Amino acid sequence: MLPKSYLEVSQVLRLIKSDLEEDPKLARLWVKGEISNAKKAYSGHIYFTIKDDKASLRSVMFASNSAKLTFDLEDGMEVLVQGRVSVFEAQGSVQLYVNSILPLGQGALYLAYTQLKERLEEQGLFARKRTIPMLPGRIGIVTSATGSVLHDIRHVAGRRNPSVSLVLAKASVQGKDAPGEIVAAIDMLNRYGEVDLIIVGRGGGSLEELWAFNTEEVARAIYASDIPVISAVGHETDFTITDFVADLRAPTPSAAAEVAVPDVQLQLNQMEERLMQSGNQIGRKLEDSKEKLERLSADSILADPRLLVDKENERLDSIQDRMIQSFQSACDKHKERLALIQGRLGGLNPLATLERGYTVVEQRDSVVSRYADLRQDEPFTVRFQDGVVTVMVKEEEA
Amino acid sequence: MKKEERTFEELLEELEDKTKNLEQGALPLEEAISTYEQAMVLLLDCRGRLDGAEKQLVLLKEKSGRFTTENMGGEED
Questions:
Q1: Chain A residues with CB inside 8 Å of B25's CB?
Q2: Contacts of B29 in chain A (CB under 8 A)
Q3: Complex prediction ipTM
Q4: What is the arithmetic mean of pLDDT over A274-292?
Q5: Do A161 and A256 reside in the same domain of the chain?
Q6: Is the pLDDT of residue B76 over 90?
Q7: Are residues A246 and A150 in the same domain?
């Protein structure tokens, strides 16, 4: 016998569904359980089962919600899930439609942090470390305009190098707008292009407050920066993703300024010290040279240039002496020879005989040395040493 | 701030170079003296600039692709 009335399958499910959906307890609830069979579909929807020891519940998180997840679902993860219970008519199953998920245990933020860290590390974002410029003239700072970071950096930088310029690119450093603003600020400084270095900074805070610096977008913006980046987020014990991606991690903003800005006052003092030493060295060198010069000039002609002339004079004198001498000796030789010749000639000179009292008789222009040759009838001359007389024979004696 | 031909950093670098050069002691005396003189002038120049420098902080702004900087005042504290 056929029942008077019956329902179609879909009618049944619609009935259940409307009953369920009318129950305010099921419309918005938190469910605690363990994740299993988590699968992310191409559409972005995530399908998983949440279960405890005794039961399990099929769950779905649509793409619009899963996009907001800050961590990946993993099987075995203890979670608190918030959503509503309804019926998936096509499969006739009760399903949890999930709006948000909070991990238990480690905590959502930390989990997201470690997962992102692992992923970026794998992609090599932490491996690139560029050199921080030695003497940056202009430093870009990404931080809030009001925080202590700006003050600290300004204070330290100004003390160490008053000539350095700081260029602030303002960004919120916490809250939901922070990541986007930080990314925009880094990007703006890169396009501006007139800074040598960027410091991305924020003071200390809880993991939640530091969250912006643990986001993927900020990490990627730092990696994409053409200008080296120093990360100075939180206190010494806080490590953010930003710290790992940056070219250098400074434990605090003040430390970042110390690393970025060399103490030029100190440098100048040291340089002055070194210059003084070099100056002294030059002074000693000069002194040495002076002494050397003095020594050189003391016993040389440089001291008395007349010495140079005297020397030449001396040489001239000696040449002159030698000339005179040789001339003299030549003269003497001639004289001697002359005397010798004279001596020999002396004997032959008739005049010399006259001097001794002899006279010479001449007749008809020739000497008459023999009596026999004298023409007695003719006059002849008798030559004395000092005169001549003409004589006639008066009487023959011999 | 008047526009300087060379930046402080360039001056400091040159000063460092000259100082090193002097320290190596290989320069002929005359060159050493003139290098020393130049280095001293640089040192004074550097000091002068530091004394005259104000801790400069500007706020960078961008409006339709154009950059402007707005002075945020000199020394604080």
A1: 281
A2: 282, 285-286, 289
A3: 0.73
A4: 87
A5: yes
A6: no
A7: yes
